[in-house]
Design a protein that fits this description.
The chain contains 7 helices and 14 strands. With 260 residues, the protein is an alpha+beta fold. The longest helix is centred in the first third of the chain and has 16 residues.
Length: 260
């Protein structure tokens, strides 16, 4: 189920996106009432990334209208993804693309939180980590590598040895003193992470892989999963029912959803 600028999307419309992989997006979980936690932050991300990728302004009123139209009548909770790209983009001369269109797709949302995640550390650094762009080859290749090794997903470690983020999620830790620790590294500024930072005490600090494995607990966050406990990083186990992680899950669910 997808629309482009509010109209049914065609294969021809999608072909430039598939062939060039140039664009940016955000995904947001729509709850049973039609509300979205962090809706304002999601829209701010789209505006910021549209300026970074396309050098163009984005009308958030249109985006809101297209999301409302797409989720109307769809079973909830669901996940609405807004992808911004230019159907006339050409691989040979992408500088000519300057009229971004708004693609909205909707899919079913899973339960929240999902079962604990087993993560495998993988050396990887995303291009333009501050932008939520559609260039997912490296991230998905890392995820596939981890899954072929028997894990659920990849945890990225940079060339400096510091932990950054997961395949499509931010990672956080609970230190031995019970403090929430977010890695200081080039990462996508996730909306769920930002909401949790606004509502909970925490610190931001560089975290090496060795330090990560010595933490009291670890968790993943994004809009689809909320707060998901990590059960392992490589061979290092973590408790999946840590009190601090449960408090984070409760804190996230207590954040009021915004209406579009």
């Amino acid at each position: 189920m997808a629309t482009l600028n509010g109209k049914p999307v065609s294969a021809d419309d999608l072909l430039p996106l598939a062939l060039t992989n140039l664009g940016h997006f955000t995904s947001m979980r729509v709850d049973e009432t039609g509300g979205i936690r962090g809706a304002t932050l999601h829209l701010e991300r789209l505006v910021r990334d549209c300026k970074a990728i396309w050098g163009a302004d984005l009308d958030t009123g249109r985006v809101r209208d297209f999301i409302r139209q797409s989720v109307e009548g769809y079973d909830r909770p669901c996940v609405a993804r807004v992808t911004v790209y230019d159907p006339k983009v050409d691989m040979g001369y992408p500088a000519a693309a300057d009229e971004p269109h708004i693609l909205v797709s909707v899919r079913e949302a899973g339960g929240m939180p999902p079962a604990p995640l087993r993560a495998m550390s993988v050396p990887y650094e995303r291009d333009l980590p501050e932008v939520k762009h559609v260039g997912l080859l490296g991230a998905l290749h890392a995820r596939r590598t981890a899954q072929l090794a028997g894990y659920g997903d990849a945890l990225f470690v940079g060339r400096d040895g510091l932990v950054s983020e997961g395949g499509t999620w931010n990672v956080g830790f609970v230190d031995q003193g019970g403090t929430i620790v977010w890695p200081q590294a080039p990462v996508l500024p996730g909306v769920t992470m930002a909401l949790l930072q606004q509502h909970t005490e925490h610190r931001v600090a560089p975290v090496t892989l060795g330090q990560a494995k010595s933490m009291a607990a670890a968790f993943a966050t994004n809009t689809s999963i909320g707060v998901r406990a990590l059960s392992t990083i490589d061979e290092a186990p973590f408790p999946t029912e840590h009190a601090a992680v449960r408090r984070l899950q409760e804190a996230y669910l207590s954040i009021p959803a915004e209406t579009l």
